[in-house]
Amino acid sequence: LIELRDVRKIYRIGDIEIRALDGVSLEIHEGEYIAIIGPSGSGKSTLMHVLGCLDRVTEGHVRIDDVDVSRAGSDRLARTRNEKIGFVFQSFNLLPRLNVLENVELPLVYSGIGKSERRRRALEAVAAVGLSDRTGNRPNQLSGGQCQRVAIARALVNRPRIILADEPTGALDSRTGRAIMDLFRELSQRGHTVALVTHDANVASEAARQIVLRDGKIV
Amino acid sequence: LIELRDVRKIYRIGDIEIRALDGVSLEIHEGEYIAIIGPSGSGKSTLMHVLGCLDRVTEGHVRIDDVDVSRAGSDRLARTRNEKIGFVFQSFNLLPRLNVLENVELPLVYSGIGKSERRRRALEAVAAVGLSDRTGNRPNQLSGGQCQRVAIARALVNRPRIILADEPTGALDSRTGRAIMDLFRELSQRGHTVALVTHDANVASEAARQIVLRDGKIV
Ligand SMILES: Nc1ncnc2c1ncn2[C@@H]1O[C@H](COP(=O)(O)OP(=O)(O)OP(=O)(O)O)[C@@H](O)[C@H]1O
Ligand SMILES: Nc1ncnc2c1ncn2[C@@H]1O[C@H](COP(=O)(O)OP(=O)(O)OP(=O)(O)O)[C@@H](O)[C@H]1O
Ligand SMILES: [Mg+2]
Ligand SMILES: [Mg+2]
Q1: How confident is the model at residue A200 (pLDDT cuts 50, 70, 90)?
Q2: Taking CB atoms and a 6 Å cutoff, what residues make up the pocket around ligand 1?
Q3: CB B170 to CB A171 under 8 A?
């Protein structure tokens, strides 16, 4: 389903070169559940952005569902993302002027879903993360873990085939985190492809397969 | 050193009332090392903001070093904060247009420390969190865990008597997190007062005392 070949992501700042990804090749098959682990700064978020068509690679090839996204135009990229991928960002990236429900509805707006169906689906997603009583609040009125859960609800609302979550339980206590992991497990059992970045060994052990990154390479 | 009596922090949104803190009384003595734990949304960050003179309480009393900060003017509050307290925010709050070194120097600028002494101390703090090779970068050029470490360096650069850290290892792998916990342990051993919010049981067990929050109350 997702294939990376010899992928490099290199940042140049002045004459300094930072190799965020340094020759990564990877295959993720439909329905797989993988965990990506590794030290701070090893390239995990960068890898997730590449998998999620959010960042272009400097070198190498990226195929998603047989589409070569490393050569695709930005419109094509955006459509692929919206139709197939749900992304939970490490720092949530909620829109500060929209309330919880509006934030969660956003992927459905891009998909052209009608107003009442959007509302229905968004309420369902918000309920799944335990925030039904906070739908009218904006992100600055929420705790860190509540923001994280809104980001998760938004990523899942379109029922995407591919779910990419960058440290989805980082701001959650063990019980709330457990509920979220049950959610991912259920989605995986229903055939969704799930890739999680995590520092939590318990979370990593839920996946069928672990990928370890170090200095931009898979070890 | 820090005393809270019957503290309430109540947000009113329309006719809805959210009791972020709902009658909290607490004493933290000089040199103590405490961990604050509890579910997402239970009031931990709110409690930290009150302890750190960053938020005013709705009801109750807050004393820091015998100063009644619940009645103090905002200048007095700011001075107390700058002189006595180092704060690591749950979402880091780095200034996006400043580089790592400039971000870390900020508390020293407020203290009126001279340029070369600021630089020296900031470099020391950055080295302590393992980021000496990234001093020229801005926050958007750093990974989540790198940003967290910059926030920690900034909080410690003034060698404050009171260190308040809201989930300081949330974005860190276990090895980098271990190095940060060693840093806090060393500061505690040297007499600094340390209060950490954490979801990590390992981190909580490092403290001499654990405080558990639930629905804005200490249980
Ligand atoms: N500005 C605000 N307006 C309204 N409610 C708020 C505001 N700030 C915080 N709250 C609410 O106060 C409660 C406590 O928030 P707080 O951030 O202290 O929780 P927390 O224990 O730190 O949670 P987490 O573990 O998720 O970070 C939450 O229900 C939160 O939504
Ligand atoms: N825009 C950028 N410019 C320069 N360097 C960057 C940029 N974005 C990321 N980097 C660097 O690329 C490397 C990998 O970053 P990445 O965010 O993928 O790490 P990570 O494994 O997710 O780390 P963490 O666990 O701390 O979140 C880091 O050294 C980071 O500083
Ligand atoms: Mg990351
Ligand atoms: Mg919090």
Answers
A1: very high
A2: A 140-146, 171; B 11, 13, 18, 20, 38, 40-46, 90
A3: yes
